[in-house]
Amino acid sequence: MNSFFRQQQDIRSFFTRKKGSNVKRKWPEEEEEDDDFQTTKKKPAKKKSKKGGVIFDSDSDSDVEIVSVSKAKGSSKSNGSVSKKTSPYMSKTPAKKKEIDAASFFGASPVQRSNKKVNNGSSKPKAVKVENPRLEIEDHSDDDFQKTLEMLDKQSVPTKTSFASKLSEKMQTSKVLVPQTPEVTPQRRSPRKRVQQAETSPLKTKKTKAVARSQKTRPEIKKEIIRYSPRKTSARSTPEKPKGDSSTPKKANKRGSPFSSKVSPKSPGEGHNNEGSPPDTAEKKRGGPAYRSYLQREGPRCLGSRELPKGEEACLDGLSFVLTGVLEYFDKGELKTHIESLGGAVRASVSKKTSYLVIGREPGESKTQKAQEMKVKMLDEVSLYDLISSRPGKRKANTKKEPSPSKQRSNEKAGTTKQEPNYITPSKIDKGKFSWKPSLANSQLSDSQGSEFNSQESLGRQNSQDSKSSSGQPQASTQMWVDKYKPNNSKQIIGQQGDRSNAKKLTKWLQRWHDNNFGPHKDKARFNRDDGFTFKAALLSGPPGVGKTTTAQIVCKEVGFTYFELNASDARSKKTLQECVSEYLDNTVLGSFFSSKPKTKDQHSRHCLIMDEVDGMSGNEDRGGMQELIQLIKGSRVPVICICNDRSHPKIRSLCNHCFDLRFQRPRLPQIKAAMMSVAFKEGVKIAPALVDNMIMASNQDVRQVLHNMSMWSAGQRSDKMEETTQRDGKEQTVKKDLKMGPWDVLRQVFSSSEEISKMTFNDKVGLFFHDYSIAPLFVQENYPNVIPRKAGGDMKKHLDLLSKTADSIAFGDLVDKQIRSSMKWNLLPLQAVFASVLPGEYMRGHLGGMINFPSWLGKNSSRGKYHRILQELQTHMRMSAATSLQSINQEYLPRMREHLTNPLLSEGSDGVDDVVGVMNDYDLTREDFDNILELTQFSGFREPMKAVPPKVKAAFTRAFNKSSHLNPFSLDWGGKAKAKRGGGFEDAPGVEGDAQETQEEEEEDDEDDKALIAKLKGKTTSKKKEPAGKKGKGPAKGKGRAKGKK
Amino acid sequence: MFEAKLQQGGLLKKILESVKDLVVDGLWDCDGAAITLQGMDSSHVALVEMLLRAEAFEHYRCDRNVTLGMNHNHLSKILKCANNDDIVILKAADQNPDSCSLILESKNGEKTSDFVVSLVRIDTDQLGIPETEYSAHVKMSSGEFQRICRDLSQFGDAVQITCSKQDVKFSSSGETGKANITLTHSATVDKEEESVTVDLKEPVDLTFALRFLNLFTKATPISDTVTLSLSQEAPLVVEYKIGDSGHIRYFLAPKIQEDEENE
């Protein structure tokens, strides 16, 4: 056996494996790698105890790996390694037992002794080819990155599949089969270390490997033996570290980094136990069977049946312990921490200074031997617990921490951080290890280990700096990028650099404001310039995130104005504005008096008002605010800058008459991109330019949004593996700002033929419809004739053809709509989308001829209802004399009646009044019916007869009509107002009027709803109406008028 | 440990009344010698500064300088429960107190009320008020001043104060008309409180918003006399003395003058 091993070593020593592979890699793999690695292992890193058996590297790792391997049922090594690597938190619990069936254990391949040789052989070439490329990547000091790369390469290597074979390989190749755990530790790290060093001579490696293994037991005092928990492995890595602190970082993640063990080989200094010394080799080789049993031993048998022994503070001060064997009641790591928290020190190897050796089940031979040699007291587990509980406590000795390298575990004892930094720093610098974000709260110090998580170096670097500086502070306290990179002067505002930019204009306006408005030449100014200089207020409008508020604030600052800002968070009702703002606009401000610099007289009044988010002044809080603002602007002695998003909002329309209108456009992509790339650089984030492009487009050139996205992305990056980065890139493409488009914008997109729009997929186009699926078809129907289609190309016939097709499609859409609404078949909506929006868009794609009109169908529909009702009323009234259908009345009677009712008035004037009254009596018509008939029969283009009637005649007619009493064969209480007016003309006039008014009112109410945005006033009918309760008209003027009336 | 015992609780009540309308959250700075309060109104046009020296307190102990951010509304609610002759004791912890306790003891010692008010964190900067030489000082009865301000606010929203050698004129104009009130320098000093003293270096003519002056005059109960200090380029100072051991000063920035705008 020995000779065999020697042989192996020799072979391996011929290969210079540069990179340290990820030690955490799967156990079997590592075995091969490690061999190679060892070749490259540096001499200094004599300690590299990388032996063929990666096994030792981390007991836990191996154990877990075994488990995972078995889990994978002998899947390829690479798979195993991948899974191992990617699982963020490997279970800490020792040896999770998994079911393994014999087949998977032993595999299908024949058992051959020579297997391992083959393996080794095969690993060599692999190693070789993998190595070289790595060599070049040297500037990458990111070990994780390396690891990843290696892993990627590794994956291509075919591996044995059966668990048993792997085991056996390991066994065979392992040089030191000593159950001593210490040995295991270094191994893991070795690849790392090798990476760092990257240049060992093969021969040396050979040796070092051997040595390394033996080194395991080296009194790396710092070494910790932690079994069964992968994390702990990391702790072990410390030993070689010259600074001796590396262990600390590793330790940090007791619980945390799943990859701690992988990372362990971080510190360059950590001389992995690669150095070996011949004598040790021998020792280790001996451990064959013992090693096997070591590997296979169980975890604590009575885990959880006891609580951690409570001891007084610092009761174990000054004592050092070595743990060996399996503890029955606790996880070794737990116990270790506990001991440390009580002030004790847990070491990895026995020395004279060791106070106690704690022996569990199946203790390590060498430790017990040493203990006997050095006359160290041996305790068993229970005695240890007793000891803890019985010892008297002392003052906390925080300083304990320092000597114990493995105390990475930042104990609750504060101040560890302070002591630790010196540990961290060197390792960090050396390895460029990057600290992980403080999500692992305990492990602020665990930077080097934290870096396991990093695949991106640059990110990590930044983080480590941060965490270093803010030792103990969660890095989450850093500012948001939008605040950090807020522009401080106008040069930094994106998109406002040009001479004709809004920022410049605003600056000029502000500078000249006093002169223009109050100076001696103010009148002149008005004539000279049209560019807004005559206005007392400025209105900045534009999409969100383009820099309006920022521009306003910076311009004020630069021109030397102090400002008072009111935004959507403040109540800005009429009253509050009067209280707060009106004084402000007339007064000087105290700040100017009390500042240090002496100011001249005119400078005292250098202040202005910024009303931000002025389109948000609505609702109860801000009632009357807009009007008050306009009044204030009129009388203000101070510039007012208003900022809004939606310039075309009705409220803003009235405001902008008094304001210098500055419209902000979205910054262009190159502008934003340049700024974002520089931000990325400052943050140390590597983002592909294409990705930045995507982000910018996805957010619709909203700078704030882009910054947020970038910071989110980079935060996410820091926890991602390299492989996932590419996936993320892809994902970014799908990050789009979901904009809620108004129907006008939707329509523009439906019919627009611009570049971007034409790239929309079918689904996107259907999606347009769904922005508002009720009104979209109406908009399309209203506006499609105005569109000049590209396809027509000027050809009238083609144009008509397209129009016809579109009309057909819209008609189909309407049919579908009917089905949907009447039978509730909502799943037909996409079908309607296609007919009503997508197809018309396709046919008529081009450019819009004029303004986009609001669908008039809605108004017409409500009118139809109204007329129908009126007609019914007329029919009822006329029933005694004309008992016909509605259509007949409408088409036959009414036109004639119109003539009969109006012609006498027109031709005979006052004399004709009697005739008219007679006609009305014949048909039992009321006064409103008269008007209604005229309205119903009024078609556009026809003259209105009553217009031509002189008012005198009208008055006479009214008088005459009212004088005569009318006995109506019908009741007049139509719409549910309970007044039953029977016959009697006595109160008819007012009563009838009243009723009719009321009924008309209700009709009006319906109408108002439908005529929402149409500000047409329908003549007489609207004039009489009372404000329907609670209705805030949507038409601006109408709405306002109504509201006032109501109040 | 900060502890201050004030014999007349009424004084604190009055002080608070005069401050709370102007400043909602005030920073009360307590150091070994005095309690100071400084605050600006929301539109940064008016500033109030209050100083109450330790002598005013029967017992004053301040180990370390503390700054108590108090919401004046809350404080005034508490003080409403106090009678004018109650003894008021203020207490606060030294290190970053987050609440301050007030104890009201009735004069005869039979009733004791105990309140704890949470402090607020206020992030405003304090303004440094320079010592300025004012061109004109006018001293008059505080009640008189209050009446003048009230009367003039019927007519307009701003008062123009013109100081000349012998008299001081307050004018206001508005839709309804104009109003002028002139006070002449008292030749004889019958009663200190009723006299009007005009001390002039240069004539001054400034306009101020009456709304703020009316708020300032809420401090009238504190003192019988009020001193106005004016200077052409400086804000108006309205000062009420608190006994011998303190004062409340209000600063008000003048309105922008029409003719000043030829700049």
Automatic annotation (TrEMBL), chain A:
Gene Ontology cellular component list: DNA replication factor C complex; nucleus
Renumbered residue ranges of the record's region Disordered: 1-143, 156-308, 387-478, 715-734, 980-1047
Bias kind Acidic residues: ranges: 995-1010
Comp. bias regions, Basic residues: 15-25, 40-51, 1031-1047
CDD domains, sorted: AAA (cd00009)
Positions with biased composition (Basic and acidic residues): 128-143, 217-226, 399-412, 718-734
SMART domains in the record: AAA, BRCT
Domain BRCT: start-end pairs: 311-391
Keywords recorded for this protein, A-Z: ATP-binding, DNA replication, Nucleotide-binding, Nucleus
Pfam families recorded: AAA, AAA_lid_RFC1, BRCT, RFC1
Compositional bias per record (Polar residues), positions renumbered to this chain: 1-11, 111-123, 156-175, 413-425, 440-478
Main subcellular localisation: nucleus
GO terms assigned for molecular function: ATP binding; ATP hydrolysis activity; DNA binding; DNA clamp loader activity; DNA clamp unloader activity
Low complexity bias (residue ranges): 65-87, 257-268
Record localization: Nucleus
GO biological process: DNA repair; DNA replication
Similarity comment text for this entry: Belongs to the activator 1 large subunit family.
Subunit structure: Large subunit of the RFC complex, an heteropentameric complex consisting of RFC1 and four small subunits RFC2, RFC3, RFC4 and RFC5; the RFC complex interacts with PCNA and the interaction involves RFC1.
Function: Subunit of the replication factor C (RFC) complex which acts during elongation of primed DNA templates by DNA polymerases delta and epsilon, and is necessary for ATP-dependent loading of proliferating cell nuclear antigen (PCNA) onto primed DNA. This subunit binds to the primer-template junction. Binds the PO-B transcription element as well as other GA rich DNA sequences. Can bind single- or double-stranded DNA.
Protein name: Replication factor C subunit 1
Taxonomic source organism: Stichopus japonicus
Taxonomy of the source species: Eukaryota, Metazoa, Echinodermata, Eleutherozoa, Echinozoa
From TrEMBL, chain B:
One Pfam family named in its UniProt record: PCNA_N
An example Gene Ontology CC term for this record: PCNA complex
Cell compartment(s), UniProt: Nucleus
Domain of life where this protein originates: Eukaryota
GO biological-process terms attached to the record: leading strand elongation; mismatch repair; regulation of DNA replication; translesion synthesis
GO MF entries: DNA binding; DNA polymerase processivity factor activity
Domain Proliferating cell nuclear antigen PCNA N-terminal, first and last residues per copy: 1-126
Keyword Nucleus: yes
Residues annotated as domain Proliferating cell nuclear antigen PCNA C-terminal: 128-255
InterPro entries linked to this entry: DNA_clamp_sf, Pr_cel_nuc_antig, Pr_cel_nuc_antig_C, Pr_cel_nuc_antig_CS, Pr_cel_nuc_antig_N
Entry keyword set: DNA replication, DNA-binding, Nucleus
Residues forming coiled coils: none
Database matches in HAMAP family: DNApol_clamp_arch (MF_00317)
Function: This protein is an auxiliary protein of DNA polymerase delta and is involved in the control of eukaryotic DNA replication by increasing the polymerase's processivity during elongation of the leading strand.
Stated family: Belongs to the PCNA family.
Stated name of the protein: DNA sliding clamp PCNA
Native species: Stichopus japonicus
